[in-house]
Design goal:
2 copies of one chain form a homodimer. Chain A is of the alpha/beta class and 243 residues long. Chain A has one domain: Rossmann fold, CATH 3.40.50. Chain A is built from 8 helices and 11 strands. The longest helix of chain A has 11 residues. Strand 7 of chain A pairs antiparallel with strand 7 of chain B.
Chain lengths: 243, 243
């Protein structure tokens, strides 16, 4: 059940053309919110789960992290990540998040950006992350918001003239897979309620420190079509937790 | 800005006819979830904020609470609550939640059921509650879900035949008052995002223990019209927090 769409050449090409792929963190609407929730990384051992092109890995090093390990299931994503930096303190490993098995207290900070909605069994992944963190270690994660994942269609409700009337929610309490369309490809995302997301983290031993349902950075509101609609419903949920 | 619709005779009459008013806790769809999140109350000093007819106050005493104080802004609600029990260990006081000012560590457990969405400044109320609880004390609260309060209309999106197509979300990031219609009366509810709700509690010093977006009890699904639609979007959010 481990999904690896990013090694599909067509999907990879389309993903590579997204603003966040060509322009990096500054083109990701949720980045200011995520950045504000990251801990001081000076001298820290950082793990990035679902690192993709490695933008957060390089950022962690810029902020003084001593070592960074980026994991991703996609060789193609990691190939690009490796090409973007020759920093010897950053290493990349091709591994599904479901297969992590680190030693106790191997990391001070664990980051995961927009990857967990692809994971079927988060409980075990969270337990592994908790095990791999030092006491007091930080876990900052983001994923697609339950309001966004509830319906497979993951789209607005439109009026007769094609205008966006509102965001439709349905099947919210029915957790499980949703076959969604992302970049003209069918991808399976796992819908969980807000309560389940928080309870899984708490159950794994984490303390919830802060939540964010990020709004786009003001400078992006008029830069991209439809960005102002992001104020009408949350697309992502970011959580800062501590061991 | 303290709202007291429940002393309005017409509103009070209509509220008095709701299943949860005539039948009590067993007729409240969210009650099984709320009950499961309540702590052991034996020998505990319990405060119920927005106690209404006092159902939770009486339940706390049945579970062995030593004393229960129920607060409500409505004299009419408290009049009925007093008529429903002469238990000397339960006392009722007519006071707006915004005006609480208890001594430090006066309570072991604080409950509030479906009242906080009427409060404009929750931050100060949460601080007061934290102050009034003993260390380790439990705070269990429920309120209307942000998915439910985002739009003032608080209603389904209907098809041509009057069928419920989905639950519309809009204006989610715009926090503040919503003039909603409840029991044919205009009431002001305050919409806050999920993140704000959690961050306010954490900011006041609480640790989040568990969340619930309750589904109706199975035995109620076919008892009331439309109850099965409650599975399509969450109406309430229940939080268990600890000082």
């Amino acid at each position: 059940m481990k999904q690896n769409k990013y090694d599909d050449p067509q999907f990879f090409d389309k993903y590579s053309q997204m603003p966040r792929s060509t322009g990096g963190l500054k083109e990701a609407g949720e980045w200011p919110a995520l950045r504000a929730m990251l801990p001081d990384m000076r001298g820290k051992r950082v793990l990035d789960l679902g690192c993709g092109f490695g933008w957060h890995c390089r950022y962690a090093r810029e902020q003084g992290a001593s070592t960074v390990l980026g994991l991703d299931i996609s060789e193609k994503m990691l190939e690009r990540a490796r090409a973007l930096s020759d920093d010897p303190a950053i290493s990349y490993r091709c591994l599904a998040m479901e297969d992590i098995d680190f030693a106790a207290e191997e990391f001070d900070v664990v980051i995961s950006s927009l990857a967990f909605h692809y994971i079927q069994d988060l409980e075990e992944v969270y337990r592994q992350i908790h095990h791999s963190l030092v006491p007091g270690g930080a876990f900052i994660l983001s994923f697609e918001h339950p309001i966004f994942t509830a319906r497979s269609a993951q789209d607005w409700h439109y009026g007769a003239a094609g205008e966006r009337l509102h965001w439709p929610v349905d099947d919210y309490q029915s957790e499980g897979p949703r076959v969604a369309n992302f970049l003209e490809t069918e991808v399976v995302k796992y819908h969980r309620t807000v309560a389940t997301h928080l309870n899984l983290l708490i159950g794994a031993g984490f303390t919830i420190k802060e939540l964010s349902e990020p709004q786009p950075a003001i400078e992006l509101l008029d830069k991209y079509d439809g960005m102002r609609d992001e104020l009408r419903r949350p697309m992502f949920l970011i959580i800062s937790a501590v061991k």
